[in-house]
Amino acid sequence: MKELLNKQIYFIGGKGGVGKSTSAAAISMLCAKQGFKTLLVSTDPAHNVGDIFHTKIGGKQKKLTDNLYAMEIDPEQETKKYIQSVKENLKGMIKSSLVDEVHRQIDTAATTPGADEAAMFNAISSILLEEKDNFDKIVFDTAPTGHTIRLLTLPELMGVWIDGMVKKRKKINTNYSNLLNDGEPVEDPIYDTLQKRKEKFAAVRKLLLDQETTGFMFVLIPERLPILETEQAVKLLAKHDLYVDTLIINKVLPNEADGSFLQRRREIEKEYLQVMEKTFKKQILIHIPLFEEDISSLQALEDFSEHVGEAVLKKA
Ligand SMILES: Nc1ncnc2c1ncn2[C@@H]1O[C@H](COP(=O)(O)OP(=O)(O)OP(=O)(O)O)[C@@H](O)[C@H]1O
Ligand SMILES: [Mg+2]
């Protein structure tokens, strides 16, 4: 299958309730069935991948079927872990009389806006770097659009921020070694920690930018607002050199749906589908029908996943 399944990493984004989690689960299932060892990662704080598979998942990888593993990143837990690691990193670097005060400040920082996102991004980064050699495919189910975009553009922002910190630190060290007047570079664990962080984010950014490795998919439904929002999201990500290559147009009225009410809806929908063809020329558009019922059983998920497979095959 061209485009869809030849990449290793997929991020599934889109507006609230359009079918991101269902699509991410279906795509993971499809990959696993094709023999690829697949990891499905939920990064949405309101996890429902577990509900979709009718099982408890949690923060550790859980094997669901042959080749299919899933995990849910818990932002609160990640923030705690992240803060703990920051404290660990500082151990031995600061005077013991300052420890309490510094820890207080770090704890306050953990409650500021953006801390959860930084922790979540750190967790995604670790999964990408640690698991990319263990899995053939890694699929991320993300939270609604705005959140995802902020998250995906974080490595760029964090890169710039850390660069600034590294430079500042270097200057302090140079001044310090000049002051000591022996010209020897000073050992600085904070500088080393920052440098490591910088390398980690740079590695992740490289992965995200590599179009052969990473694909960004958006799910939307054929209505005016989701189209507008997706158009904006696609543009915004492109500004950060991230290209959405596939759109899953979900809940398209199936041909067999009849009645005059549905007929009228179908006409409107047809116009929106045409608008989408025009608006999203660079993307592969995959149509998935509206099912009679929500996708709440594994059988329904398999059916959904078959639809995705067929639609992709058609486009390949
Ligand atoms: N093609 C479809 N036909 C019928 N029901 C569907 C279809 N796709 C998704 N659903 C149902 O729509 C609801 C929303 O789907 P899902 O949870 O996958 O969306 P989401 O984008 O992940 O939502 P959120 O933004 O809340 O995470 C679910 O009840 C799901 O079973
Ligand atoms: Mg979801």
Key terms:
316 residues; alpha/beta; ATP binding; ATPase_ArsA/GET3; ArsA/GET3_ATPase-like; binds magnesium ion; binds adenosine-5'-triphosphate; nucleotide-binding
- CATH top level label: Alpha Beta
* Total discrete domains: 1
Outline the biggest β-sheet.
Answer: 8 strands, mixed
Classify the helix fraction into a percent range: 55-70%
Oligomer: single chain
Mean pLDDT equals: 85
Tell me the strand percentage band. 5-15%
So, the CATH homologous superfamily?
P-loop containing nucleotide triphosphate hydrolases
Radius of gyration: 23 Å
**What molecules are bound to this protein?**
adenosine-5'-triphosphate, magnesium ion
Overall form: elongated
Give the structural class.
Answer: alpha/beta
Which CATH architecture would you pick?
Answer: 3-Layer(aba) Sandwich
InterPro entries: ArsA/GET3_ATPase-like, ATPase_ArsA/GET3, P-loop_NTPase
Pfam families: ArsA_ATPase
Keywords: ATP-binding, Nucleotide-binding
GO molecular function: ATP binding; ATP hydrolysis activity
Write a brief caption for the model.
By secondary structure, the chain is an alpha/beta fold. The protein has helices spanning about 20-35, 50, 75-90, 95-110, 115-130, 145-180, 190-210, 225-240, 260-280, 300-315, and strands spanning about 10-15, 40, 60-65, 70, 135-140, 215-220, 245-250, 285-290. A hairpin with a 2-residue loop joins β3 (about 60-65) and β4 (about 70).
